[in-house]
Inverse folding.
């Protein structure tokens, strides 16, 4: 969608020019010279390995013995005879469906507050961004494990209010919740994008709405939100893709198990455990392909839904 | 993806005076700032807590929930540094640095080459390759980890930095290729046309005209390459098996698994240290990082 103008131009361009500019051939060769590392990477590191993993997904392979062809067995087993697989699907969906809206709601809320109060915006913006910068690291996962542990600071804080906490990360009912909070805590990056989008909304829009007697909430629903919807859409796409691929926190906090009781066994964690814990490379490859197709469908679905609620201003370039 | 387009100008409004029509009464502004500061305290609490705890004495950890230590114990740092038998965190830092620098160089070199071809040269199938490049942008790397592991295993690259570095020299980080293409398209074409008339071929145009003007995108690429690689866990977890080859995140994880409750403070000390390079980068390149998100949708 980005390249439309550029893509249309060169191939349909007048071929007659070829004879006029002798530099053309030279340029075409140079094009492939510049592109050669990328092409090598595309085939060697991306496409051929992808095909190989498709093949592996129909085999039994433990790295030591040659892959043994088993047909669709991995897929059949996955769908019909592996409760942990379905559990990981459910966990991942639950994680994405809760963490993405929560994170975006906080991001939008803070962006609106910041937008109305220009003083100190730069400083706030940078400081709010810090959790996004550090949040994916092992260090923060370790901090989270301590914060939400049985004797962690969260319980210390709750005790002040007379609430007896629990070992949140060790409780199957709450462990995933701590991961959702960790994800939402990193609201800084989408917030910065929202803020940039808000700045693009012409002030006259609000003036006109205010003259028509629209209150704050009416303005938000009928002016801000529609005009911001392309940016919201962009954030939804980015965060959804990221939400399905979370790994580090779930893995580190659960001690590399996806526990307690598989409650934080995200799809990626389960894939890792099958592939690099049990060295079932065939099964892990099958999981990878299912993941790829599922993500493709979900992304397509998000893009599809976009046409229903994303409002593009008629600026001529759409 | 629709990065710049997403925040493209929806009508020009120079110096818009806020969401006008309603000049906020003073107490509204004050309330907003109170709320903003409250959110800020919550947002920064875990980080401040981490730093504070790294200076607490062991017996304080579980009964002092204040951010500040009662008794300032910097000794956690040397303790943590040698907290894993037979190895120091110095080794982990060195391993991380080697990988991060390799990735930075690889991304800057390889992605700029590919981007120049896409942005500035005409050659057959350009649109086709470009579409494929955009497609790989959305490819989750978990999908490729198994076959790539098999590949690098057969090359005997496991337990070396090579699986992390070499692919970057082949411009596999499509995101940065895309970023640079977008940037290079903004450079006036008249500049390289002038150079062309002066007899510069594509190679000289790349080195002497386009590359110097692409510097902001190259810096952005370098900064984000460093931060992402430094924080990366998944790839390093897969490819590094033996302790002497571990990087900082993998070393921290080992620390977590191998130590009991009374090692929390030293472990926090090492956690703080592990984030120092990222934080320094943030301080130096703050504007670039935060604005980079605006213009290209880079996530943290």
């Amino acid at each position: 969608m980005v390249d439309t103008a550029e893509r249309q131009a060169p191939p349909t361009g007048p071929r007659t020019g070829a004879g006029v500019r002798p530099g053309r051939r030279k340029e075409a060769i140079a094009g492939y010279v510049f592109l050669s590392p990328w092409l090598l990477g595309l085939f060697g590191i991306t496409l051929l390995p992808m095909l190989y993993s498709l093949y592996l997904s129909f085999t039994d392979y433990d790295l030591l013995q040659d892959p043994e062809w088993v047909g669709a067995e991995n897929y059949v087993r996955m769908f019909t005879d592996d409760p942990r697989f379905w559990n990981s699907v459910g966990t991942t969906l639950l994680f994405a469906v809760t963490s993405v809206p929560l994170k975006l709601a906080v991001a939008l809320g803070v962006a609106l507050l910041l937008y109305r109060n220009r003083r100190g915006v730069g400083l706030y913006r940078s400081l709010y961004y810090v959790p996004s910068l550090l949040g994916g690291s092992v260090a923060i996962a370790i901090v989270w494990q301590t914060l939400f542990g049985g004797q962690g600071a969260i319980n210390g804080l709750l005790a002040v209010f007379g609430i007896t906490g629990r070992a949140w990360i060790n409780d199957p009912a709450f462990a995933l919740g701590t991961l959702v909070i960790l994800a939402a805590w990193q609201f800084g990056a989408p917030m910065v994008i929202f803020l940039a989008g808000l700045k693009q909304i012409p002030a006259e829009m609000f003036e006109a709405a205010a003259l028509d007697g629209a209150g704050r909430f009416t303005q938000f629903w009928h002016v801000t939100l529609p005009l911001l919807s392309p940016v919201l859409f962009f954030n939804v796409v980015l965060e959804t893709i990221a939400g399905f691929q979370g790994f580090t926190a779930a893995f580190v906090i659960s001690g590399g198990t996806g526990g307690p009781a598989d409650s934080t066994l995200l799809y990626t964690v389960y894939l890792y455990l099958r592939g690099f814990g049990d060295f079932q490379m065939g099964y892990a490859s099958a999981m990878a392909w299912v993941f790829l197709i599922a993500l493709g469908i979900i992304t397509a679905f998000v893009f599809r839904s976009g046409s229903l609620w994303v409002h593009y201003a008629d600026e001529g370039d759409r | 993806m629709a990065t710049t387009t997403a925040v493209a100008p929806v009508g020009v409004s120079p110096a818009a005076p806020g969401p006008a029509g309603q000049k906020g009464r003073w107490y509204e502004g004050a309330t907003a700032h109170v709320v903003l500061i409250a959110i800020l305290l919550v947002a920064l609490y875990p980080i401040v807590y981490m730093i504070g705890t790294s200076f607490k004495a062991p017996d304080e950890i579980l009964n002092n929930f204040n951010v500040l230590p009662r008794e300032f114990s910097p000794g956690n740092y040397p303790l943590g540094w040698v907290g894993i038998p037979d190895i120091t965190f110095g080794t982990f830092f060195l391993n991380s640095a080697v990988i991060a620098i390799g990735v930075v160089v690889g991304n800057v070199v390889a992605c700029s080459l590919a981007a120049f071809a896409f942005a500035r040269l005409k050659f057959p199938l350009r649109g086709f390759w470009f579409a494929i490049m955009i497609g790989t942008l959305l490819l989750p790397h978990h999908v490729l980890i198994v076959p790539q592991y098999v590949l690098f295993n057969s090359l005997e690259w496991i337990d070396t930095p090579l699986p992390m570095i070499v692919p970057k020299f082949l411009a596999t980080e499509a995101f940065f290729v895309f970023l640079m293409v977008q940037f290079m398209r903004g450079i006036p074409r008249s500049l390289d046309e002038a150079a062309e008339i002066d007899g510069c071929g594509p190679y000289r145009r790349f080195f002497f005209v386009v590359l110097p003007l692409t510097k902001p995108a190259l810096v952005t690429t370098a900064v984000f390459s460093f931060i992402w690689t430094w924080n990366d866990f998944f790839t390093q977890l897969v490819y590094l098996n033996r302790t002497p080859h571990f990087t900082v995140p993998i070393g921290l994880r080992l620390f977590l698994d191998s130590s009991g409750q009374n090692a929390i403070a030293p472990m926090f000390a090492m956690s703080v240290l592990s984030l120092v390079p990222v934080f320094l980068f943030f301080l130096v390149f703050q504007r670039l990082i935060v604005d980079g998100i605006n213009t290209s949708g880079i996530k943290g």
About this structure: Strands of chain A lie at 59-60, 68-69.
